[in-house]
Amino acid sequence: MNREIPDEILKEKNYEVYTTDNFGTPLIQKVAPKLRATTGEEKVVDSLEDVVLKTVEDGMTVSFHHHFREGDYVFNKVMRIIIDHGFKNLTLAPSSLTNVMNDIVVEAIEKGVVTNITSSGMRGSLGDAVSHGALKNPVIFRSHGNRARAIETGAIKIDVAFLGVPNSDAMGNANGMDGATAFGSLGYALMDAQYAQTVVLVTDNIKPYPNTPASIKQTQVDYVVKVDAVGNPDKIGSGATRFTKDPKELKIAKTVNEVITHSEYFKDGFSFQTGSGGAALAVTRFLRQSMIDNQIKASFALGGITKPTIDLLEEGLVDKVMDVQDFDKGAAESMHQNKSQQEIDASWYADPANKGAMVDALDVVILSALEIDTKFNVNVMSGSDGVIRGAIGGHQDAATAKLTIISAPLVRGRIATIVPDVTTAVTPGDSIDVLVTEVGIAINPKRKDLLESLSKVPGVPVYTIEELQQMAQEKVGTPKPLEFNDRVVALIEYRDGSLIDVIKEVKD
Amino acid sequence: MNREIPDEILKEKNYEVYTTDNFGTPLIQKVAPKLRATTGEEKVVDSLEDVVLKTVEDGMTVSFHHHFREGDYVFNKVMRIIIDHGFKNLTLAPSSLTNVMNDIVVEAIEKGVVTNITSSGMRGSLGDAVSHGALKNPVIFRSHGNRARAIETGAIKIDVAFLGVPNSDAMGNANGMDGATAFGSLGYALMDAQYAQTVVLVTDNIKPYPNTPASIKQTQVDYVVKVDAVGNPDKIGSGATRFTKDPKELKIAKTVNEVITHSEYFKDGFSFQTGSGGAALAVTRFLRQSMIDNQIKASFALGGITKPTIDLLEEGLVDKVMDVQDFDKGAAESMHQNKSQQEIDASWYADPANKGAMVDALDVVILSALEIDTKFNVNVMSGSDGVIRGAIGGHQDAATAKLTIISAPLVRGRIATIVPDVTTAVTPGDSIDVLVTEVGIAINPKRKDLLESLSKVPGVPVYTIEELQQMAQEKVGTPKPLEFNDRVVALIEYRDGSLIDVIKEVKD
Fold this sequence. Notes:
2 copies of one chain form a homodimer. Chain A is of the alpha/beta class. Chain A has 2 domains: 44-113 and 154-235, Glutaconate Coenzyme A-transferase, CATH 3.40.1080.10; 247-484, 3-Layer(aba) Sandwich (Glutaconate Coenzyme A-transferase). In chain A, 27% of the residues lie in helices and 23% in strands. Chain A contains 16 helices and 30 strands. In chain A, the strands form 6 sheets. A 10-stranded mixed β-sheet of chain A has the order 3-13-11-9-4-5-6-8-29-30, sandwiched between helices. In chain A, strand 14 (270-273), helix 10 (278-294) and strand 15 form a beta-alpha-beta unit. Chain A is globular, with a radius of gyration of 22 Å. Strand 1 (27-29) of chain A pairs antiparallel with strand 2 (34-36) of chain B, so a sheet runs across the interface. Chains A, B: Its EC number is 2.8.3.10, 4.1.3.6.
């Protein structure tokens, strides 16, 4: 990949450098937790503080999930107690960090409470602080599939998982699909429930025993803490699913659909992951019409799920929705009533180190990019100013699909999206097949088959990615090269656990 | 318990002797398999023989489940190949052995193919052969909960699990509830799927990918073998659920119901496990009427499930059915359409070494006995001739309920059921609360509360167990003491992994 990775990082952390997106078929020794057996002891506790004091010790790894997204109350409640009691040297290992968690993590870092973080991503004040060297040790960024791999193989060993749930019975049988703060799939949290030494459920809704369906099971849970509220229902998912009206986004979405429908993968039984956001929803809408017009049905839709994808399921255009998280209320609410909306954990979704994940069978995926370079390497982690403001999510994982499409505008404001070299390499160009912009598409030269099949699509001009990069540069000029200090503030793992890039401290 | 257990067995196998039915709250280090990662490789194979040859080696532990019961074809197909290829020194670790498996296991033992067995039980020609010393090493009998414990802690390390399923997709997503040979819950097999190094699904019904609901997941499966038929639908479960007409059984069932309804546990939200067989079904019917008459509803019914229990669920008399296996077609067929019939694995059902099993919350259980002695110890494993002809099943596990009732006639034919000392101790008297016979009941003296609450139930005379034993003896006389050789042919573990008894070779 030709990224600058300091040797001392590789040695100190015992990392291999990324070489291939083909995981192969290695032997994998999985790990398992050490647990305290119980036989009917009371698990319900009123005081979250008591449970934190009973379970957390200096130096431990504590985890959370981000299924409540910007409506999360649990993370702040727990971290407040942890900070106020002066714990030190904790490792935070959440599935991801949403904006509502930023300020308290910055405070925890400043006070020496948190000295290590592994996450899918971070943004805002936290990304800024870390980029300026606030955290003692480099953050490790991992994709959702890689987090599952790391947990299953012991690279992440969670001592205590604090998992907010919209319902639980007194023994810890819980799901994400019922209750005022329902968020649908518990996909990421299921890893923590299975592998953490100690599992603390936090809920505002204790249900009669036994509570079913039980996505998290009593066999995994040590404590059930009753609190007033676990989240703000209005902020858990975007409420209405807004269809973009931006002409550039619409043009890109339409072109993405042209690429899909003119590829060999668009046939009965195909599968896809479209993701969230206004542009992704537009793709889903165009794709829906093409499926109807061509009498083509999909076998499954994968990934973070939105209401428009559920609509396809209900219309019979998609047989199964394989659901690791839900991005909006419509998707979350449908889960408990639609048998074909299958909850999957992060391992089943995307872990390369098990006996086969859903992403292995994925035909078409549409992904975004903060930057993409002329080697097709994609950055979804840092801004053009070098500051951390993104998340890997399932980007590296889903990019292993047969047809991986990056949808991105040539420029955003005065900043080029297509660049000679990405600021941070997150997903390798090896995995990317087509870049779709508002002016046309570029095809990875490795994919000669696509160069052929997509060369004569009406209204879809094909360029080399260097040409698109030049067009972007002509629009916004050549930016002054970024300057960084030598200190490494974050490590970007590839999904196999190798190191694909590092992020250095920004120079002010 | 005062059972004769040879010291060399304790030393050689590093066993503790059973001391208490209270498991306590020890720290438990769970284990995890080493697996071969795959990313989309083809798993479907036509030749079962090829897969056996690729996966099995001399000395390995191979496992099966018994959910197909007497309709199972998979066990015989796999064992035929194993025997014909001359494998040696295998350990058989099925969830249990049904009669249809007996003859081929005897053959495998005689040919040195199988030298160790761990099972819930065995009967017929196999029990006879083992009792006469055919197997090289002692069989280890474990309850369903103890098997889960042993698998989760590494005492049973399964190299290859051959799991028959009524449906699977090409990647190994499978369930037990759909298809011509549906048997309902995959409860016992879920342990094998999660913990075996290599998992081979055997099916006659390949479904489109992705197959849901997936009780067994593709992340766990190495091979999917397509065969002509996995089982005989007519023999998987007893077809019609027959209500006993035997006056003695009816009398016992009625008395069991009197004991339940006059106990403190019979109140709204109570829970129960009734089991299978004509007498158990009669209990369920009497209990149903009492629930209606007293306007009492149960929170859950547990265990092996029958259609009459599903009827209670559908009538609203039971909120949830927690289902580790289904004994008949009615129960099996209802699973995929009734959300309140929750599939549970053997660990969730009954493992004492996790963070809480369903049996911990069980109020009332009705269990059977081949023999029960004046210390309330129960034998469900060997006949009065000393020959193995039974299974622990969930007996030890469910006996930890708050009210454990043994229902048994005083005598069967010319053989006493109530004896001074059981031939084989399986479930300790510590766990047993009430014995119900056709002439009256006996209450464990430890349960002074029950002596009080059940002393004045109309039509239910209370005796000491010694009195009942005397009545049985008066009916059939005193049998000649059994004679055994010194050699130990089977070990009876308690559910915590301690040794509760041994079975010695019968003397002819």
